[in-house]
Amino acid sequence: MNTQFDPRTVHPNPQFRGPQFIREPQAGPRPPFAPAQPPFGGHPPFTPPQVFPGQYRGPVPPPPSAPLPKKRPIVGKIVAGLVAAGLVVGGAGAWYTLSGSTPTVQATSFAGADPTTAPFGTDHAEVATVAATGDQPGDTPGLYATTDPASCDSAAFLQQLQADPAKLAAWGGVFGLGAADVPAFVNSLSPVVLRAATSVTDHPFHEGAFVEEPAVLAAGTAVLVNSYGEPTVKCFNGNPLSAGPSTAAAVTVSPTTQVVTNFRLTTVDNSRVVVVHGKPDPKPNKGPNKKPETVPTPDPVLVQKAKDAQTAADKARTDANDARAKADDAATKARIFRSEANRLVGVEAAATNRANTANAAAATAQQELNRAFLAFPPDPARVAAAQAKLTAARSEQVAAATDLVKARNDLTEADGAADTAEDQARMANSAATSAEGVADQADKNAADAKKKADDSAKPENQPAKNTVTGDGTAPGTDVAPEKGTGTQEGTADGAKPDTDGTAAGTGTGTTTGTGTGTGTTDPCSAVAGKTLPATCQAPDTTGTGTTGTTGTTGTTGTTGTTGGADTAGTGTGAGGGQSGSDTGSTSQDGGSTGTGGSTGSDQSTGS
After folding, report:
1. In whole angstroms, what is the distance from residue 558 CA to residue 572 CA?
2. Nearest one of 105, 106, 196 to 143, comparing CA atoms
């Protein structure tokens, strides 16, 4: 989210030192680059040459703070970055891209474990902070502060770079520059002090390469900005800086589209405005600094919805798989039961055949016994044999009947079990099909939700930046004809904006008029309804009007001019159908001019 801010908006407590940033503990001996003595040719540490009444008296040591959380070894980060993003080569240097890192908050006077150079500037923890977050153009008035002498010594920095040709080439490579282009580029940078926590991409120098790490620099950090207002070098360690990711609690500086002509800075205590001339862009390929390759951030609400939809889809798919497995088991069980029932059909058929055979054999044995009894002369042996045969046949007949009953009972039971299993299999299959349908829809919902989340990260779907811009142009308006008699002079009190003055003329006639105005609007321009920041000087506004030449006779008067904020104007009208033109100029800090013309049947002058 982009935030417009008033550069005056500072904390009323003079002891307030901006956001409390965690300072890395200074354990062990001082680093070899620590400025224990006046560095770089005897330049002493910065001390403000004057004291503003009621304000600070020189740099104040920042308050003690808790130690930073233990960071992962940078080697691990580099390995992870190599896997995630690969090696990027630019110009004569190289650097590794680390993806998915969390911005590290850097307190003032923080050099880090892998500084590019020794400090060549002084941070100012006591700077009057400004309430600003979100995207801010590099030429935003009051975004930066300036010091006298300058907070950074560019010559000392360049001297250190040139002492190590390999590092010089790698440093230039971060910005797509050759080693020969670095000196002119460094000399085009302007020293400033950050007045708000600022998101950047830091580039510590590790094992011969610059490693990209997102960071938030504390207010009071001294940096060099380029011709487009972008923080480019951190003066306490010489690390290259490029655009950082958007962070809710910090400013993200966006480059201006053109080279900044004048930077509107403040003093460290915000007691006055200082205008510093910008410098030309000396790079072979002119333009803002190279921006890091960042993945656009999707809408977090849509991302969460996509996650929830995917979770629901995963559960639905799991349930569908379980239902299908149960259906498959039920189908297998039904096949087994049906197979057993089919087998018992054969058993029952065999038992039926056996019973039929046993019945037939018993009937035959009974007939033979009957004939043996009726034979004459009687034959006891024949009767005994027939009787024995009938007994065996009847015994077989009983056994066959018993087996047949059992076979039929088994078949009925198996057939019923098979029917039940098949019914259960059909129900399980129906449930599985339904669950698979739910899972398919859930998968579709998850895919749609993910697409929406992914699409929200596309540039065309990103929220519009909340910026307010103006080019100072205003179209002219036609003045409606007005009839009137007599002559009247009116004035408009410039202290009251939007005060109308009127004028009337004598005669008859009609009049029309057109007018256009063009100009540029300075951020500190006086606008109706707008309160000027304290950092803006009081504007001086003047305006003049010229009397038109006599025109055709008419009786129509024209409506007088409208007064604006901090302006004073007069209007007169006279009969005679005159035509005329109005011209005016408004000068303020930054400059704003405009012209307009009108024709009419009577005379009007004003400013």
Report:
1. 10
2. 196
Contact 366, 374 (CB under 8 A): no
Is 156 within 8 Å of 120 (Cβ atoms)?
yes
Helix (H) or strand (E) holding 61: none
Type of residue numbered 465: K
472 and 521 Cβ atoms separated by less than 8 Å:
yes
Measured CA to CA, the distance from residue 315 to residue 332 in angstroms comes to 26
Contact 210, 95 (CB under 8 A): yes
475's tokens: 């179209």
Helix (H) or strand (E) holding 571: strand 569-572
Cβ–Cβ < 8 Å for 537, 524: yes
What is the residue-wise DSSP string for 451-469? HHHHHTTSGGGSPPP----
The string of pLDDT tens digits covering residues 122-169 is 999 999 999 889 999 999 999 999 999 999 999 999 999 999 999 999
3-state helix, strand, coil in the chain (%, to 5): 30, 15, 50
Are 212 and 97 spatial neighbours (Cβ–Cβ below 8 Å)? yes
Asked if 20 contacts 63 with a C-beta cutoff of 8 angstroms, the reply is yes
Helix-helix angle 154-162:165-174, to 10 degrees: 120
Residue 231, pLDDT above cutoff 70: yes
How many whole angstroms separate alpha carbon 9 and alpha carbon 534? 9
What digits encode the pLDDT tens for the residues 423-473?
999 999 999 999 999 999 999 999 999 999 888 887 766 655 443 333 333
The alpha helices in 375-474, defined as continuous H runs, are 380-455
Q: Do 574 and 528 form a contact (C-beta atoms < 8 A)?
A: no
| Closest C-alpha to 600, from 533, 530, 514 | 514
Backbone angles phi, psi at 264, to 5 degrees: -95, 95
The DSSP line for 508-569 is: --------EE-----TT---TT-PPPTTSPPPB------PPPP-S---EE-PPPBP-TT--E
| Structure-token pair, residue 353 | 């055949």
Q: Is the pLDDT of residue 524 over 60?
A: no
User: What six digits make up the tokens of 488?
Assistant: 């009247």
User: Which residue from 230, 236, 50 is spatially nearest to 143, judged by alpha carbons?
Assistant: 230
Whether 386 and 368 have beta carbons less than 8 Å apart is answered as yes
The token duo for 55 is: 């304000």
235: left (phi over 0), alpha (psi -120 to 50) or beta: alpha
Q: The pTM is what?
A: 0.39
Q: Is 320 helix (H, G, I), strand (E, B) or coil?
A: helix
Long-range contact set of residues 364-367: C-beta below 8 Å, sequence gap at least 24: 364/393, 365/389, 365/390, 365/392, 365/393, 365/394, 366/390, 366/393
- What token pair was written down for 159? 């001297």
Count of Cβ atoms closer than 10 Å to residue 78 Cβ: 17
Q: Which tokens belong to 406?
A: 């059992």
* Residues near 126 by beta carbon (within 8 Å), at least 6 away in sequence: 17, 56, 59, 60, 220, 268, 269
Mean pLDDT across 555-571: 43
Higher pLDDT, 487 or 251: 251
Hey, what are 281's tokens? Answer: 């862009």
pLDDT at 463: 57
Return the SS3 of 415. helix
* Structure-token pair, residue 8: 């005056």
Please, what is the end-to-end C-alpha distance for the chain in angstroms? 40
Both tokens of residue 173? 């490579």
Rounded Cα distance between 593 and 260, Å, is: 20
Task: State CA 231 to chain mean position distance.
Answer: 21
